[in-house]
Amino acid sequence: MTAIVEVHDLVREYRMGDERVPALRGVSFTVHETDSVAIVGPSGCGKSTLLNLLGVIDRPTSGTVSIGGARVDQLSDARATEFRLRRIGFVFQRFYLLQALTARENVELPLAEAGVGSAKRRARALELLEYVGLDRRERHRPSQLSGGEQQRVAIARALANRPALLLADEPTGELDARTGAEMIALLTRLNADGTTIVVVTHDEELARAAKRVIHMRDGLVVDDARRDPADLRVEPRGVTPEAHER
Amino acid sequence: MIATLAAASLIRHRARTALAILGVAVSAAMLLDMVMLASGMRESFRGLLLSQGFQLRLSPRGTLPFDTEATIRDAASLLATVRARPTVAAVSPVLGGQLHFPVGDSTVTASALGVEPAVQGDYELVSGRSPTAPDELVTNDATLRALGRTVGDTVRAAAGYDPQLRTLSGERTLRIVGRVRFIYLALDQRAVALPISTLRAVNGPSSAERISLAMVKLRPGADIERERSTLLALLPRVTVISTAEALKQVDERLSYFRQLAVILGAVSLVVGFLLVTTLVTVSVNERIGEISVMRAIGVRRWRVVAQILLESSAIMLIAAPVGLALGLVTARWLNSILARFPGLPERIDFFLFQPRAAWTALGLLVLSGILAGIYPSWRSASLPIATTLRQEAVG
After folding, report:
1. Which of B1, B289, B296 sits opposite A108 (nearest CB)?
2. DSSP B334-367
3. What is the DSSP annotation of A58-114?
4. In chain A, which residues have their Cβ closer than 8 Å to the Cβ of B392?
5. Which segments of chain B are extended strands (E)?
6. Which residues, 6 or more positions from B301, have their beta carbon under 8 angstroms from its beta carbon?
7. From the list B296, B299, B393, which residue is nearest A94 (CB)?
């Protein structure tokens, strides 16, 4: 299998006055294509810091990060932005949709930034909204959607430019149990359709659905376990996998 | 997409957008009014001086035209000297004075201008005709109203009036042959114009061969300043003032006024600038999370800045024409108030719309407003994404 993410001896320290506070203290691992990885651990263990470094929205103090064979830990701002646009999909705990735009326009935003023409991006946005089961809500604004629906739109937005890697930070953190279960099913189906996913979560159900779980504590990886495929939970609900063709 | 986002953002905060447009429009209106005020009186005065085509004015030595009651004696020889100049096309002598008109038990007093009707440059005919006979005069509306007369009526006029004895001297009957508008006099100032010979006759020997002012029209192509110097050398008893010189003196007298307008105009510009800076800063601070998300999903920094600048540009571009309209209406209103200032010529405008100056001022305001948005938007687009998102999540 091809390695999509390669992290080597990653260190990230923050300055607090004169003091250096380590968030990551030498993390190394590899994620392969079509993998689904859940990073778990107590608050403050460095999960989100690690996700930010994988998402190229932060720089490590030392160590290397490669995604799709390219070093991304020392990219300039412009190159990092371009990399995020074309190779990374982000899903946030709080959805972070642009309130001024409709669901479809939110999905179109990264496509427009990538220079896709209006007809093509509209078609792609509708295709993705259909994939996440929201094709009838394309004209709704975020305030008119439930939390679960907003997170689905956020996932559709993250998939817009067919990223190599989907990163999700507590994607079920703001959802109730039922909606959370639907979200897990959607992410599982997405992974089954070929998207490599790395999630940071406290949600045991979500972690249980991943093929691999990395446990962190005090800025270090303390356990890295691959699950038996027979134990994986896959409960797709209301999604059309054919829509997401890579 | 950026335009959609910018428009959506402005529409989403309708009240704030409307208030911002109104605020900038008021600032633009004030700036425009100050620009109009700074040059209005000067340009208006210039137009007034040039309106009848006289480029030089001769007044008693050391005085400005009609600044004092001083007159020039031996007018005939002076006028002959001036008329003999090859560059002179016409000379219009003017004698100033007063006439008293008995109306019932009271007396109406009016300024009187003795002129040569064929070459005069002091009034514009509204109706009727100019005097052609010695016993004819023309008046303005204020005098007609005070006299209760109309064109075609006759009036008794006297040069002298003793208020204690209530007696008139040098009385004669004159016929009103025209209704006029005096160019250099206030709208409500009672005034009449009559042949200079008639006014001299009414006044008696004291004003014989005297004039208060002579206005000189030069032939096309004549060098005005050179002719002025020549006349000054030829006529040591008079002051010769050109339009440019008169404007210079007006400029000196209006300098405080103009400085005030420039200062207030600059204040308006700064207020507009600060208003947009505050607005953009508030708007950006409110959207730091949104901006960080845009950056996280790959939206380029310059495009985030462009979106915010587009919003501030839209506000400025909508506010500018609103401000222009508001400024013009306000200027007209203020002008009507200031025009009532006693003694001002009817045609003097305090606020004069000069397209180039107006567009420059408004352009400067729009530009400063747009520039005001660059720093806060660039700064917010440059914030560390991960840290900002974490703070937003905690917030």
Report:
1. B1
2. HHHHHTTSTT--TT--SS---HHHHHHHHHHHHH
3. S--SEEEEEETTEE-TT--HHHHHHHHHHHEEEE-TT----TTS-HHHHHHHHHHHT
4. 94
5. 56-60, 88-103, 106-115, 123-128, 136-139, 154-157, 160-162, 167-169, 172-182, 191-195, 213-218, 238-242
6. A77, A78, A81, B295, B378, B381, B382
7. B393
B7-63, pLDDT tens digit by residue?
Answer: 877 887 888 888 888 988 888 888 888 888 877 877 887 887 777 788 899 988 877
Are A24 and A10 contacting, i.e. CB atoms less than 8 angstroms apart?
yes
pLDDT of residue B394: 53
- Give the distance from CA B164 to its chain's centroid: 42
**pTM of the full structure:** 0.68
Q: Which long-range contacts (CB under 8 A, 24 or more apart) does B388-393 make?
A: B388/B288, B388/B289, B388/B292, B389/A57, B389/A92, B389/A96, B389/B289, B389/B292, B389/B293, B389/B296, B390/A48, B392/A94, B392/B288, B392/B289, B392/B292, B393/A92, B393/A93, B393/A94
> Which of A95-109, A204-218, B25-39, B365-379 shows the lowest mean pLDDT across its residues?
B365-379
- Ranges of chain B whose pLDDT falls below 50: 395
Contact call for B290 and A84, based on CB within 8 A:
no
Give the 3-state secondary structure of residue A166. strand
